[in-house]
Amino acid sequence: MTEQASGLLMVLTGNGKGKTTSAIGQAIRAAGNGMKVCFIQFIKGGDWKSGERQVMERLADLVDFRVMGRGFTWKSDDPEKDRALASEAWAYATDAIASGQYRMVVLDEFTYVINYGMVDQDKVFEVLGKRPPGVHIVITGRDAPLELVDIADLVTEMREVKHPFKKGIKAQRGIEF
Amino acid sequence: MTEQASGLLMVLTGNGKGKTTSAIGQAIRAAGNGMKVCFIQFIKGGDWKSGERQVMERLADLVDFRVMGRGFTWKSDDPEKDRALASEAWAYATDAIASGQYRMVVLDEFTYVINYGMVDQDKVFEVLGKRPPGVHIVITGRDAPLELVDIADLVTEMREVKHPFKKGIKAQRGIEF
Q1: Which residue of B has its CA nearest to A2?
Q2: Shortest CA distance to A35 belongs to which of A126, A138, A154?
Q3: Which of B36, B53, B70, B72 is catalytic?
Q4: Average pLDDT over chain A, rounded to an integer
């Protein structure tokens, strides 16, 4: 297998807006090329439906969209439950990567899971590093750990130059979710 | 109208990967919230079908996806034709912004059109600055001009930290298009 045909490990990090939306766009682009995608949201969760979730339901033949967290932040009222959900989502991701069913697996907001020690970090880097040839992996989230940057093929830092929250404009439907 | 309800001008710039994919994700998110989107590609064009184009055809009730350029680069064999196409696409965009039909208008790779002087820059900043309330605009492309940054509500610089092209891995289907 040539290098060109092997799957890329892509990391979208930084404090600016555009990480998850870029991962969604990457999933759409891959899906439009007939590549089956598994998109796992590690933090967002619950019954609440984001815009992307509603569109992805229409593309269910192309994208398996899994919302496996339970909220927006790590200011948690139940850290044990968060840990259990993160483990479950990571087990799901590991299976998806190994399954041969997907050409792309997106681990949305996964850096938080790594950085907060919700999963075994050595195991994470092993699974990512030994992914099957041809499987692209996209990881999003702030503060990508150096070890992840080291093994990645592509890293983009989304740097905040200007953000409306700083002007007092609140998060709004269609933009932030 | 409160500030919160007014449309944002968002600029995705920088030399890293993630600008167009983020705009696609933003369009998907808005569309999933029932907001009609007009997505105009200023540079890409022709018969050739990107992954995003193929998926957007399935979402035609939510997203008007217009491919109005004719190629990948400005190393043009026919600058007059490029200028004519850019003018046409900008006229289309101006109408879309004013029409009241769309809650979001994406001008993909539009910074190149501005920077190469393909359209009247003063007119561009006037149209963007005087957009109707409630219309979000997303502009992508490298080297966003300072005047655009000044009037934008949100600016993210996609900074290249690591890119596979530097390792000799070529552009590939599903990742770059």
Answers
A1: B169
A2: A138
A3: B72
A4: 92
A-interface mutation test, from B3, B21, B36, most A Cβ less than 10 A away: B21
Question: What is the phi-psi region of residue B34: left when phi exceeds 0, alpha when psi lies from -120 to 50, beta otherwise?
Answer: left
**CA dist., res. B121 & res. B143, Å (int):** 15
| Weakest-pLDDT range from A9-23, A54-68, A138-152, B73-87 | B73-87
Confirm if B157 and B14 have CB atoms less than 8 A apart.
yes
Instruction: Give how far Cα A175 sits from Cα of A70, B17, B31, B63, B76, Å.
Output: 20, 20, 10, 15, 36
| Strand-by-strand arrangement of the B9-13 sheet | A63-69, A37-45, A104-108, A136-140, A9-13, A154-162, B154-162, B9-13, B136-140, B104-108, B37-45, B63-69
User: For chain B, percent helix, then strand, then coil, each to nearest 5?
Assistant: 40, 25, 40
Mean pLDDT of A105-127: 96
Token pair recorded at residue A38: 């598994």
A21 assigned to active site: yes
Task: Determine contact, residues A29/B174, Cβ cutoff 8 Å.
Answer: yes
Confidence of residue B11 (pLDDT cuts 50, 70, 90): very high
Nearest by CB: B33 against A17, A157, A174: A174
Residue B20 annotated among the catalytic residues of the structure: yes
Q: How confident is the model over A141-172, as pLDDT tens digits?
A: 999 999 999 999 999 999 999 988 888 888 88
CATH topology of domain B3-167: Rossmann fold (3.40.50)
User: How far is it between the farthest Cα atoms of chain A?
Assistant: 52
Task: For residue B59, give both structure tokens.
Answer: 């979402």
pLDDT > 70? residue B83 = yes
- Average pLDDT of span A79-91: 92
For chain A, what are the domain ranges?
Answer: 3-167
pLDDT digits over B139-166, tens only? 999 999 999 999 999 999 999 999 888 8
Say what the pLDDT of residue A71 is: 72
> How many residues in total does chain A contain?
177
Beta strand B104-108 with A136-140: parallel, antiparallel or unpaired?
Answer: unpaired
